[in-house]
Design a protein that fits this description.
Distance between the termini: 9 Å
Order of helices and strands: HEEEHEEHHHH
Structural class: mainly alpha
Largest sheet: 3 strands, antiparallel
Helix content: 40-55%
Radius of gyration: 19 Å
Strand content: 5-15%
Number of helices: 6
Strand order of the largest sheet: 3-5-4
Amino acid sequence: MFTKQEAQKLLSYSMGSDLHEEWRKTRLIVDKNGNKSFDPRWKSTKDNRFASKYLRQLQDGQTNEKGNIRNVKGEIEVDIANMTFNELPKDWQAENLAAAKVAIKSVFNDVSSKKNISQNDIESYASTVHDEWLTRNAWAKGGDLDKPYSELPENEKSKDRQQIIHALNSVKDLKEGRTDIKDLERRFGKYLGDRGMER
């Protein structure tokens, strides 16, 4: 079995992946023949290890076989809409992973102790999610979202609540034996470092 920290880490990566997939769905395109693709969203990466690997493989103007990584004048760009979470460079995993870590950590002890989670608890956890988001995203300073959770419009509160509900369900499923541990470790065990994939 996993330590508390390992369980939180695996659940955070799983939830980060889920958040990315939910965002990708907003970019889904279905053509007249029913073929599915995602509206591209090209971004440069600051993940030096990732960029170095592809700078060795791709000449200027070239794109990888999948068509989601390209070299533009010596800078690697990635199509984040056409990459799974695990395929993303670390800098493009970061925000979803950070949000997931906050949500999982917020609820983990209460769920583990079988506390009866109330709507007030959910609001409190969601407030923490919002506060941590503001801390991570300095660009939001002075903007419409730079205010306490209680003053946010309902649609913004709902986003934070949904992250908490996702985290609650993930932790409950793990604690109640409904999580496919082997699948979770297969997909995200590499993030546990040396202990990942050893069991």
